[in-house]
Every structure is written in C-alpha cells, then in structure tokens.
Amino acid sequence: MKRSEINRYIAEAIDYIDKSGFRLPPFAFWSPDEWKTKGEEADEIRENGLGWDVTDYGLNEFMSTGLLLFTIRNGNFARKDYYPKGYAEKIMVVREDQITPFHYHWNKREDIINRGGGELLIELYLADDKNGLSDTTFSVAIDGVRRQVAPGDKVALTPGESICLEPYIYHSFWGKTGAGTVLVGEVSDVNDDNNDNCFLDKLGRYPKIIEDELPLHYLCTEYPKGGKLIRT
Fold it and tell me: What domain count does the chain have?
C-alpha cells in the first residue's frame, strides 16, 4: 500500500468515527512530531500494539480485501507481570463489500459489535483438526441468545447487535452492499496478532508500505522507541 493511501483512509476514518458519535482517545491524533516528545510514559501504547492498524493482508486490494482498525486498549501475554489486563477493545471501520478474510484465533474469545452505520455480514465455520473448514454444525451466542448455525451460514448484525466468537470459529466479515459503511466494535480477551491468528489462506497480516509521502499518524507497528522503563 502507498503511504498516501493509508493517510487518506485514516483521515476518512477519523471523520467517519467522529460523525458516528464515537470518541477516540487522545493518542489517536498524535502526529509523528508529537511522538518524538513521548518517552517511557507512552510505552503501554507502543508495547501492546495500541493505535492505528490499516491492512490489505498483503494483497494490495484494500477496498475489496482489507480492514482499518484502532486498538484502544490491550493487555500483553508476554508481559503479564507489567500489563495484567486480560482484555482488549478495538473500533473498526468496515466498508461495503470490503472483506476481512477467513481466520480464527486459538486463544482469543471476542464479541463483534455493530456500533452503527450499515449492516455487518459474518460468515462462519468451525475449524477442523487440519485448520480447514469443518462440516460440523455448531452454536454461537448473539446478544446472549444461543443459535445453531450450519457451516457457511451468514449472520447479519444491524446496529446494536453483537455476536460472541469462541476460539476455533472461522469468521469472515464485510459490510452489506447498499447499506453503508459499518462502525464495528470488538471487545475480547487479550489480542496477540503475532501469535493468535490462523488464516485459512496464507496472507500477510500487515501491509508492505510504499513511502510516497510522510505519515499522518504512525501505525501501531511503527512507533519510535521511548525511554527504557525500569520495571520492578
């Protein structure tokens, strides 16, 4: 992806999220120059992957296969001594027909929430013992109500609705055609993108960036290192 594209998508997301009535934390708006002034006091943001995340899964087709996320809070399995939070929260902007590819998590349980806008479609399968798509029927909880789903069933979430996805449930989601962009929330166990994503197809988690202009905001993988914390 080009940096200019990432900048544009983040700027559009900031505008859309604000108009939706959802408020981002202050660090969402820090510029690269502001990050130069941040020392060890901001290490929780750096070390736990908080902030902007724009991915095309290495396919360079963001509008058709991609996702824009902002991680608001997160724990850290590798540093539970210092970051004991057992939970995470994200806000996502999902466009019409913009697919997040099939994946599941070995450890993370997550609630996916339609916070507003259009309609979110989620296609579901159980994973089999070879990380493929199982032909087994299973159940999910949608706003506390248990529902049986067959392999490949699609669940539609309108604003205010949510689904709980247990580990080993493959899911792919996108905004319904003609219904508009969707503001999607995620409340989950600790998020670990480096070790807890199993994609059905081999994909890259983060984009390869062509630096055709300076960044508007850093992505969560790009922060400059602050001062070293003394941990006791």
Answer: 1
